[in-house]
Amino acid sequence: MDTVKHNLTNLFLQLGLSAESKDIDAFVKQHSLDDGVALEDAAFWNEAQSQFIRESRANDADWSEMVDELDTLLRDKK
Fold it and tell me: Which InterPro entries match (predicted)?
């Protein structure tokens, strides 16, 4: 049973990225998604990260809400 709290910090850990607040902020500032590009298809992911995001969305997994939140953060740059 998955007992991990599903938040942005732990999503970054699942993706093998630094989960420090400053690093999450830097990641969001440094990366963006263009219209028509799915989060899992972004060039900045490695294959494993892309697969995790894809599977989370496809299976409406526990992480899908946080994946959607990250998607929004990477698109809302106004």
Answer: DUF2789, DUF2789_sf
What is each CA distance from 52 to 15, 34, 77, in whole angstroms?
Answer: 8, 20, 24
Alpha-carbon span 45 to 27, nearest angstrom: 12
Structure tokens at 45: 């992911």
* Domains defined for the chain, CATH in brackets: 8-75 (1.10.10.1130)
Give CA–CA dist 70/11, Å, rounded: 9
The span from the CA of 24 to the CA of 32, in Å, is: 13
Q: What is the pLDDT of residues 13-43, one digit of tens each?
A: 999 999 999 999 999 999 999 889 999 999 9
Q: Is the pTM here over 0.85, yes or no?
A: yes
CA distance 26 to 37: 21
Q: Hey, what are 51's tokens?
A: 């697969």
